[in-house]
Specification:
This protein is of the alpha/beta class. The protein has eleven helices and 18 strands.
Protein backbone atom coordinates (compact mmCIF):
# COMPACT_ATOMS: atom_id res chain seq x y z
CA UNK A 1 0.00 0.00 0.00
CA UNK A 2 2.84 2.36 0.91
CA UNK A 3 4.53 1.65 -2.45
CA UNK A 4 1.34 2.57 -4.34
CA UNK A 5 1.15 5.85 -2.45
CA UNK A 6 4.77 6.63 -3.21
CA UNK A 7 4.56 5.95 -6.96
CA UNK A 8 2.77 9.21 -7.95
CA UNK A 9 5.15 11.22 -5.78
CA UNK A 10 8.22 9.52 -7.27
CA UNK A 11 6.93 10.09 -10.80
CA UNK A 12 6.34 13.77 -10.06
CA UNK A 13 9.81 14.05 -8.54
CA UNK A 14 11.37 12.38 -11.59
CA UNK A 15 9.68 14.82 -13.97
CA UNK A 16 10.66 17.78 -11.78
CA UNK A 17 14.26 16.60 -11.70
CA UNK A 18 14.30 16.22 -15.50
CA UNK A 19 13.01 19.75 -16.00
CA UNK A 20 15.46 21.05 -13.39
CA UNK A 21 18.30 19.22 -15.15
CA UNK A 22 17.30 20.79 -18.46
CA UNK A 23 17.34 24.24 -16.91
CA UNK A 24 20.63 23.59 -15.13
CA UNK A 25 22.30 22.36 -18.31
CA UNK A 26 21.20 25.49 -20.11
CA UNK A 27 19.21 23.55 -22.69
CA UNK A 28 17.25 26.03 -24.77
CA UNK A 29 13.50 25.56 -25.17
CA UNK A 30 12.20 24.21 -28.46
CA UNK A 31 9.64 26.35 -30.27
CA UNK A 32 6.61 25.31 -32.34
CA UNK A 33 4.70 28.15 -34.00
CA UNK A 34 1.31 27.18 -35.49
CA UNK A 35 -0.26 29.71 -37.84
CA UNK A 36 -3.85 29.61 -39.14
CA UNK A 37 -4.95 31.52 -42.24
CA UNK A 38 -7.91 33.98 -42.11
CA UNK A 39 -9.11 32.59 -38.77
CA UNK A 40 -11.10 35.36 -37.15
CA UNK A 41 -10.72 36.57 -33.56
CA UNK A 42 -14.26 35.37 -32.94
CA UNK A 43 -13.87 31.98 -34.65
CA UNK A 44 -12.36 30.38 -31.52
CA UNK A 45 -14.34 29.29 -28.49
CA UNK A 46 -12.25 31.10 -25.88
CA UNK A 47 -12.69 34.31 -27.86
CA UNK A 48 -16.47 34.03 -27.95
CA UNK A 49 -17.41 31.60 -30.74
CA UNK A 50 -20.72 29.88 -29.98
CA UNK A 51 -21.41 27.67 -33.02
CA UNK A 52 -18.03 26.26 -34.06
CA UNK A 53 -16.31 23.98 -31.56
CA UNK A 54 -12.57 24.45 -30.98
CA UNK A 55 -11.94 22.29 -27.88
CA UNK A 56 -8.27 21.68 -28.57
CA UNK A 57 -7.26 25.29 -29.17
CA UNK A 58 -9.35 26.21 -26.13
CA UNK A 59 -7.57 23.59 -24.02
CA UNK A 60 -4.20 24.83 -25.24
CA UNK A 61 -5.17 28.26 -23.91
CA UNK A 62 -6.59 26.98 -20.62
CA UNK A 63 -3.36 25.10 -19.94
CA UNK A 64 -1.27 28.02 -21.17
CA UNK A 65 -1.91 31.73 -21.72
CA UNK A 66 -4.60 33.40 -23.80
CA UNK A 67 -3.63 36.85 -25.10
CA UNK A 68 -6.69 39.05 -25.55
CA UNK A 69 -5.00 42.05 -27.21
CA UNK A 70 -2.64 40.53 -29.75
CA UNK A 71 -2.37 41.62 -33.37
CA UNK A 72 -1.17 40.29 -36.71
CA UNK A 73 1.42 42.19 -38.71
CA UNK A 74 -1.07 43.38 -41.34
CA UNK A 75 -4.69 42.82 -42.44
CA UNK A 76 -3.64 40.53 -45.31
CA UNK A 77 -1.37 37.55 -45.69
CA UNK A 78 2.01 38.45 -47.23
CA UNK A 79 2.82 41.61 -45.23
CA UNK A 80 1.54 40.00 -42.05
CA UNK A 81 3.82 37.00 -42.51
CA UNK A 82 6.66 39.28 -43.54
CA UNK A 83 6.31 41.15 -40.24
CA UNK A 84 6.18 37.91 -38.29
CA UNK A 85 9.29 36.59 -40.01
CA UNK A 86 11.42 39.75 -39.84
CA UNK A 87 10.32 41.51 -36.66
CA UNK A 88 9.59 44.68 -38.61
CA UNK A 89 6.22 46.38 -38.84
CA UNK A 90 4.79 47.44 -42.18
CA UNK A 91 6.30 50.90 -41.81
CA UNK A 92 9.77 49.40 -42.25
CA UNK A 93 9.26 45.93 -43.75
CA UNK A 94 10.13 44.98 -47.32
CA UNK A 95 6.65 43.51 -47.93
CA UNK A 96 3.76 45.91 -47.21
CA UNK A 97 0.99 44.39 -49.32
CA UNK A 98 0.07 41.26 -51.24
CA UNK A 99 0.74 43.02 -54.56
CA UNK A 100 2.96 46.01 -55.23
CA UNK A 101 1.86 49.44 -56.48
CA UNK A 102 4.92 49.56 -58.72
CA UNK A 103 8.11 47.55 -59.13
CA UNK A 104 8.29 43.98 -57.94
CA UNK A 105 8.39 40.79 -60.01
CA UNK A 106 5.60 39.91 -62.43
CA UNK A 107 3.68 36.68 -62.15
CA UNK A 108 0.30 35.11 -62.82
CA UNK A 109 -2.60 34.99 -60.37
CA UNK A 110 -5.36 33.18 -62.19
CA UNK A 111 -5.67 34.98 -65.53
CA UNK A 112 -4.23 38.24 -64.20
CA UNK A 113 -0.65 39.47 -64.18
CA UNK A 114 0.30 40.85 -60.77
CA UNK A 115 3.53 42.17 -59.29
CA UNK A 116 4.85 41.15 -55.89
CA UNK A 117 7.73 41.93 -53.59
CA UNK A 118 9.60 39.18 -51.77
CA UNK A 119 11.83 38.82 -48.75
CA UNK A 120 15.33 39.75 -49.88
CA UNK A 121 18.72 38.40 -48.89
CA UNK A 122 19.05 41.38 -46.57
CA UNK A 123 15.92 40.42 -44.64
CA UNK A 124 17.03 38.70 -41.44
CA UNK A 125 14.30 36.26 -40.43
CA UNK A 126 13.37 34.42 -37.26
CA UNK A 127 14.72 31.37 -39.07
CA UNK A 128 18.11 33.05 -39.38
CA UNK A 129 17.94 34.13 -35.74
CA UNK A 130 17.21 30.65 -34.49
CA UNK A 131 19.91 29.12 -36.69
CA UNK A 132 22.42 31.61 -35.29
CA UNK A 133 21.27 30.63 -31.79
CA UNK A 134 22.07 26.97 -32.49
CA UNK A 135 18.62 25.72 -33.48
CA UNK A 136 17.59 23.46 -36.34
CA UNK A 137 14.77 25.15 -38.24
CA UNK A 138 11.92 23.74 -40.30
CA UNK A 139 8.87 25.23 -42.01
CA UNK A 140 5.82 23.25 -43.12
CA UNK A 141 2.96 24.66 -45.19
CA UNK A 142 2.35 28.14 -46.54
CA UNK A 143 5.28 30.54 -47.07
CA UNK A 144 3.75 33.36 -49.18
CA UNK A 145 6.66 35.82 -48.92
CA UNK A 146 8.58 34.61 -51.95
CA UNK A 147 6.69 36.76 -54.46
CA UNK A 148 7.72 35.36 -57.81
CA UNK A 149 11.39 34.94 -56.91
CA UNK A 150 12.42 31.30 -57.14
CA UNK A 151 15.39 32.00 -54.85
CA UNK A 152 13.34 33.45 -52.00
CA UNK A 153 12.17 30.17 -50.50
CA UNK A 154 12.45 29.25 -46.80
CA UNK A 155 15.66 27.37 -47.64
CA UNK A 156 17.30 30.68 -48.59
CA UNK A 157 15.75 32.60 -45.70
CA UNK A 158 16.77 30.78 -42.57
CA UNK A 159 15.12 27.34 -42.63
CA UNK A 160 17.05 24.08 -42.86
CA UNK A 161 14.00 22.19 -44.10
CA UNK A 162 10.85 23.16 -45.97
CA UNK A 163 7.82 21.31 -47.23
CA UNK A 164 4.89 23.28 -48.59
CA UNK A 165 3.80 25.53 -51.40
CA UNK A 166 5.16 28.68 -52.97
CA UNK A 167 3.60 31.51 -54.96
CA UNK A 168 6.23 30.81 -57.59
CA UNK A 169 4.88 27.41 -58.66
CA UNK A 170 1.65 26.88 -60.69
CA UNK A 171 -1.55 27.44 -58.73
CA UNK A 172 -2.92 24.08 -59.84
CA UNK A 173 -0.05 22.51 -57.91
CA UNK A 174 -0.09 24.78 -54.91
CA UNK A 175 -2.96 26.94 -53.68
CA UNK A 176 -5.51 24.16 -53.33
CA UNK A 177 -6.48 21.86 -50.52
CA UNK A 178 -5.66 18.89 -52.75
CA UNK A 179 -2.20 19.75 -54.15
CA UNK A 180 -0.85 17.59 -56.93
CA UNK A 181 2.70 18.83 -56.35
CA UNK A 182 4.56 19.99 -53.27
CA UNK A 183 7.87 21.77 -52.82
CA UNK A 184 10.00 19.54 -50.58
CA UNK A 185 13.52 20.68 -49.68
CA UNK A 186 14.25 22.19 -53.08
CA UNK A 187 12.32 19.83 -55.34
CA UNK A 188 8.76 19.56 -56.59
CA UNK A 189 7.39 16.21 -55.51
CA UNK A 190 4.18 14.56 -56.65
CA UNK A 191 1.37 13.94 -54.17
CA UNK A 192 0.16 10.76 -55.84
CA UNK A 193 -3.28 10.53 -54.12
CA UNK A 194 -4.14 13.94 -55.61
CA UNK A 195 -3.08 13.33 -59.21
CA UNK A 196 -5.63 13.37 -62.02
CA UNK A 197 -7.80 15.81 -60.02
CA UNK A 198 -8.37 13.25 -57.28
CA UNK A 199 -9.00 14.32 -53.69
CA UNK A 200 -7.01 11.79 -51.74
CA UNK A 201 -4.81 13.75 -49.33
CA UNK A 202 -6.18 16.90 -47.69
CA UNK A 203 -3.48 19.55 -47.45
CA UNK A 204 -4.21 20.21 -43.78
CA UNK A 205 -3.67 16.54 -42.95
CA UNK A 206 -0.56 16.51 -45.11
CA UNK A 207 0.94 19.45 -43.18
CA UNK A 208 0.09 17.79 -39.87
CA UNK A 209 1.64 14.48 -40.89
CA UNK A 210 4.80 16.24 -42.08
CA UNK A 211 5.06 18.17 -38.82
CA UNK A 212 4.63 14.99 -36.77
CA UNK A 213 7.23 13.19 -38.88
CA UNK A 214 9.65 16.04 -38.20
CA UNK A 215 8.94 16.01 -34.46
CA UNK A 216 9.56 12.26 -34.37
CA UNK A 217 13.14 12.94 -35.46
CA UNK A 218 13.51 15.34 -32.54
CA UNK A 219 12.42 13.11 -29.67
CA UNK A 220 16.00 12.65 -28.42
CA UNK A 221 16.12 16.47 -28.20
CA UNK A 222 19.90 16.68 -28.57
CA UNK A 223 19.66 19.97 -30.41
CA UNK A 224 16.96 22.61 -29.93
CA UNK A 225 14.55 23.05 -32.83
CA UNK A 226 12.14 25.61 -34.22
CA UNK A 227 9.19 24.29 -36.23
CA UNK A 228 6.86 26.70 -38.03
CA UNK A 229 3.62 25.04 -39.08
CA UNK A 230 1.55 27.21 -41.43
CA UNK A 231 -1.93 25.92 -42.29
CA UNK A 232 -4.22 27.21 -45.06
CA UNK A 233 -7.38 26.63 -43.01
CA UNK A 234 -9.85 28.27 -43.07
CA UNK A 235 -8.79 30.43 -46.06
CA UNK A 236 -10.91 30.19 -49.22
CA UNK A 237 -11.83 28.15 -51.18
CA UNK A 238 -14.23 26.42 -48.83
CA UNK A 239 -13.15 22.79 -49.03
CA UNK A 240 -12.97 19.79 -46.69
CA UNK A 241 -12.84 15.98 -47.05
CA UNK A 242 -16.16 15.86 -45.19
CA UNK A 243 -18.23 18.09 -42.97
CA UNK A 244 -17.31 16.06 -39.90
CA UNK A 245 -19.38 16.86 -36.81
CA UNK A 246 -21.36 19.51 -38.70
CA UNK A 247 -22.74 17.32 -41.51
CA UNK A 248 -26.21 17.13 -39.95
CA UNK A 249 -26.44 20.75 -38.85
CA UNK A 250 -29.42 22.66 -40.19
CA UNK A 251 -27.11 25.28 -41.70
CA UNK A 252 -26.42 26.36 -45.28
CA UNK A 253 -23.85 24.21 -47.09
CA UNK A 254 -21.07 26.81 -46.92
CA UNK A 255 -21.52 27.21 -43.18
CA UNK A 256 -21.13 23.49 -42.53
CA UNK A 257 -18.03 23.42 -44.73
CA UNK A 258 -16.43 26.44 -43.07
CA UNK A 259 -17.06 25.04 -39.59
CA UNK A 260 -15.49 21.74 -40.69
CA UNK A 261 -12.42 23.60 -41.95
CA UNK A 262 -11.96 25.03 -38.46
CA UNK A 263 -12.60 21.54 -37.06
CA UNK A 264 -9.75 20.06 -39.12
CA UNK A 265 -7.47 22.87 -37.96
CA UNK A 266 -8.41 22.25 -34.33
CA UNK A 267 -7.83 18.50 -34.71
CA UNK A 268 -4.38 19.19 -36.14
CA UNK A 269 -3.48 21.33 -33.14
CA UNK A 270 -4.50 18.42 -30.91
CA UNK A 271 -2.33 15.94 -32.81
CA UNK A 272 0.76 18.14 -32.51
CA UNK A 273 0.21 18.82 -28.83
CA UNK A 274 -0.54 15.16 -28.04
CA UNK A 275 2.68 14.05 -29.67
CA UNK A 276 4.70 16.64 -27.76
CA UNK A 277 3.21 15.36 -24.50
CA UNK A 278 3.55 11.64 -25.25
CA UNK A 279 7.12 11.99 -26.53
CA UNK A 280 8.21 14.08 -23.55
CA UNK A 281 9.18 17.00 -25.79
CA UNK A 282 6.57 19.17 -24.09
CA UNK A 283 8.77 19.36 -21.01
CA UNK A 284 10.99 21.85 -22.84
CA UNK A 285 8.87 23.15 -25.74
CA UNK A 286 6.87 26.35 -26.18
CA UNK A 287 3.90 26.24 -28.56
CA UNK A 288 2.49 29.42 -30.09
CA UNK A 289 -0.83 29.54 -31.93
CA UNK A 290 -2.05 32.52 -33.99
CA UNK A 291 -3.87 33.62 -37.14
CA UNK A 292 -2.30 35.73 -39.88
CA UNK A 293 -5.11 38.33 -40.04
CA UNK A 294 -8.83 38.81 -39.51
CA UNK A 295 -11.62 36.77 -41.12
CA UNK A 296 -12.17 36.75 -44.86
CA UNK A 297 -13.64 39.78 -46.58
CA UNK A 298 -13.81 38.71 -50.24
CA UNK A 299 -16.52 40.73 -52.00
CA UNK A 300 -19.02 37.93 -52.56
CA UNK A 301 -22.18 37.52 -50.57
CA UNK A 302 -21.50 33.83 -50.10
CA UNK A 303 -18.15 34.32 -48.38
CA UNK A 304 -19.21 37.39 -46.45
CA UNK A 305 -22.18 35.42 -45.13
CA UNK A 306 -19.78 32.93 -43.55
CA UNK A 307 -18.12 35.54 -41.34
CA UNK A 308 -21.47 37.14 -40.54
CA UNK A 309 -23.14 33.78 -39.80
CA UNK A 310 -20.46 32.85 -37.26
CA UNK A 311 -19.62 36.38 -36.02
CA UNK A 312 -16.05 35.58 -37.01
CA UNK A 313 -14.83 39.00 -35.92
CA UNK A 314 -16.75 38.87 -32.63
CA UNK A 315 -17.38 42.38 -31.30
CA UNK A 316 -14.67 43.84 -33.52
CA UNK A 317 -15.17 46.28 -36.37
CA UNK A 318 -13.99 45.26 -39.83
CA UNK A 319 -12.60 42.19 -41.54
CA UNK A 320 -9.51 41.12 -43.43
CA UNK A 321 -8.12 44.13 -45.36
CA UNK A 322 -9.26 46.57 -42.66
CA UNK A 323 -6.91 48.26 -40.19
CA UNK A 324 -9.75 48.36 -37.69
CA UNK A 325 -9.61 45.73 -34.94
CA UNK A 326 -11.48 43.08 -36.92
CA UNK A 327 -8.79 43.06 -39.59
CA UNK A 328 -5.73 42.79 -37.36
CA UNK A 329 -6.61 41.59 -33.84
CA UNK A 330 -6.16 37.80 -33.83
CA UNK A 331 -6.33 34.77 -31.54
CA UNK A 332 -2.96 34.24 -29.85
CA UNK A 333 -2.19 31.43 -27.41
CA UNK A 334 1.07 30.38 -25.78
CA UNK A 335 1.46 26.95 -24.19
CA UNK A 336 4.62 26.14 -22.24
CA UNK A 337 4.20 23.45 -19.56
CA UNK A 338 7.61 24.15 -18.03
CA UNK A 339 6.65 27.76 -17.20
CA UNK A 340 4.91 27.42 -13.84
CA UNK A 341 3.84 31.05 -13.27
CA UNK A 342 2.35 31.71 -16.70
CA UNK A 343 -0.83 33.80 -16.46
CA UNK A 344 -4.05 32.22 -17.68
CA UNK A 345 -5.01 35.40 -19.51
CA UNK A 346 -2.83 38.32 -20.58
CA UNK A 347 -4.17 41.70 -21.65
CA UNK A 348 -0.70 42.94 -22.63
CA UNK A 349 -0.90 44.36 -26.19
CA UNK A 350 1.48 42.76 -28.66
CA UNK A 351 1.88 42.04 -32.38
CA UNK A 352 3.82 39.99 -34.88
CA UNK A 353 6.84 42.32 -34.76
CA UNK A 354 7.29 41.13 -31.15
CA UNK A 355 7.96 37.52 -32.18
CA UNK A 356 11.56 38.19 -33.28
CA UNK A 357 12.73 39.67 -29.94
CA UNK A 358 10.63 37.12 -28.03
CA UNK A 359 12.35 34.24 -29.82
CA UNK A 360 15.66 36.01 -29.27
CA UNK A 361 15.10 36.09 -25.51
CA UNK A 362 13.96 32.46 -25.43
CA UNK A 363 17.00 31.36 -27.45
CA UNK A 364 19.48 33.60 -25.62
CA UNK A 365 20.29 35.78 -28.63
CA UNK A 366 19.07 39.31 -28.02
CA UNK A 367 21.43 41.25 -30.30
CA UNK A 368 22.42 41.23 -33.96
CA UNK A 369 19.02 42.01 -35.46
CA UNK A 370 16.72 44.96 -36.03
CA UNK A 371 13.14 44.93 -34.81
CA UNK A 372 10.17 47.20 -34.24
CA UNK A 373 8.93 44.88 -31.52
CA UNK A 374 9.59 44.10 -27.89
CA UNK A 375 9.89 40.70 -26.26
CA UNK A 376 6.66 39.42 -24.74
CA UNK A 377 8.51 36.60 -22.98
CA UNK A 378 8.17 38.44 -19.64
CA UNK A 379 4.39 38.55 -20.14
CA UNK A 380 4.39 34.83 -20.97
CA UNK A 381 6.23 34.13 -17.71
CA UNK A 382 3.87 36.32 -15.72
CA UNK A 383 6.36 39.10 -15.10
CA UNK A 384 5.60 42.81 -15.15
CA UNK A 385 5.42 44.17 -18.68
CA UNK A 386 6.88 47.40 -20.02
CA UNK A 387 5.09 50.72 -20.22
CA UNK A 388 2.66 51.48 -23.03
CA UNK A 389 4.28 51.64 -26.45
CA UNK A 390 3.17 52.28 -30.00
CA UNK A 391 2.21 49.38 -32.27
CA UNK A 392 2.03 50.42 -35.93
CA UNK A 393 0.42 49.27 -39.19
CA UNK A 394 0.03 50.72 -42.67
CA UNK A 395 -1.94 49.41 -45.62
CA UNK A 396 -2.47 50.42 -49.25
CA UNK A 397 -5.32 48.51 -50.92
CA UNK A 398 -7.91 51.20 -50.16
CA UNK A 399 -5.56 54.16 -50.35
CA UNK A 400 -2.84 54.83 -47.81
CA UNK A 401 -4.06 53.98 -44.30
CA UNK A 402 -2.27 53.93 -40.95
CA UNK A 403 -3.21 52.53 -37.58
CA UNK A 404 -1.63 52.60 -34.12
CA UNK A 405 -2.31 51.00 -30.78
CA UNK A 406 -1.06 52.99 -27.79
CA UNK A 407 -2.19 51.64 -24.45
CA UNK A 408 -5.98 51.82 -24.46
CA UNK A 409 -5.99 54.14 -27.47
CA UNK A 410 -6.47 53.06 -31.08
CA UNK A 411 -5.77 55.55 -33.84
CA UNK A 412 -6.85 54.99 -37.46
CA UNK A 413 -5.77 57.47 -40.13
CA UNK A 414 -7.74 57.27 -43.37
CA UNK A 415 -8.15 59.91 -46.08
CA UNK A 416 -5.72 62.07 -44.11
CA UNK A 417 -8.05 62.19 -41.09
CA UNK A 418 -7.21 60.62 -37.72
CA UNK A 419 -9.93 58.70 -35.90
CA UNK A 420 -9.45 57.90 -32.20
CA UNK A 421 -11.07 55.14 -30.15
CA UNK A 422 -10.83 54.11 -26.50
CA UNK A 423 -10.61 50.32 -26.66
CA UNK A 424 -11.26 49.96 -22.93
CA UNK A 425 -14.79 51.28 -23.39
CA UNK A 426 -15.32 50.86 -27.14
CA UNK A 427 -13.72 47.67 -28.44
CA UNK A 428 -16.01 47.85 -31.48
CA UNK A 429 -14.62 51.26 -32.54
CA UNK A 430 -18.06 52.80 -32.89
CA UNK A 431 -17.39 56.25 -31.42
CA UNK A 432 -14.63 58.48 -32.79
CA UNK A 433 -13.48 60.68 -29.88
CA UNK A 434 -10.60 62.48 -31.61
CA UNK A 435 -12.21 65.88 -31.00
CA UNK A 436 -12.44 65.12 -27.26
CA UNK A 437 -8.79 64.07 -26.81
CA UNK A 438 -6.57 66.67 -28.53
CA UNK A 439 -3.47 65.77 -26.49
CA UNK A 440 -3.72 62.09 -27.38
CA UNK A 441 -4.31 62.96 -31.04
CA UNK A 442 -1.26 65.23 -31.03
CA UNK A 443 0.91 62.48 -29.51
CA UNK A 444 -0.22 60.00 -32.15
CA UNK A 445 0.23 62.48 -34.99
CA UNK A 446 3.76 63.25 -33.80
CA UNK A 447 4.53 59.54 -33.70
CA UNK A 448 3.20 59.05 -37.22
CA UNK A 449 5.67 61.65 -38.53
CA UNK A 450 8.55 59.23 -37.87
CA UNK A 451 6.74 55.88 -37.89
CA UNK A 452 7.75 54.78 -41.39
CA UNK A 453 10.32 54.85 -44.15
CA UNK A 454 9.53 55.14 -47.84
CA UNK A 455 9.14 51.95 -49.86
CA UNK A 456 10.16 51.41 -53.49
CA UNK A 457 7.11 49.20 -53.99
CA UNK A 458 4.29 51.10 -52.29
CA UNK A 459 3.68 54.81 -52.59
CA UNK A 460 1.73 57.09 -50.28
CA UNK A 461 -1.20 58.44 -52.29
Amino acid sequence: MMIKKLLPFCLMLLVSNMVFAQQQSGQKPNIVFILADDLGYGDVGIYGQKLIQTPNIDKLAKEGTQFTDFYAGAPVCSPSRGSLLTGLNTGHATIRGNATDHGGIAGKKGKNVVYRANLTKDDYTIGNLMQDAGYETSLVGKWHVDGYDSLATPLQRGFNKFSGWLINIPETYASTYWPEKRFVNGKLETIEPNTNQRKGYYETNLCTDEALAYLQTKKDNKKPFFLMLNFNNPHSPLDVPDQAIYKNKDWPEDMRTYAAMVYYLDQSVAKVKDYLVKSGLSRNTIVFFASDNGPRSEPTSQLKAVSEFFDSNGQLKGYKRDVYEGGIRVPFVVWAPFIKNAPKVSHVPGYFADIMPTFGEIAGKTTGFKTDGSSIYPAIKGEKSKEDRFLYWEFFEQGFEQAVRYGKWKGVKRHNKLELYNLDTDISETRDIASEQPEVVKKIENYLLTARTESPYWSVK
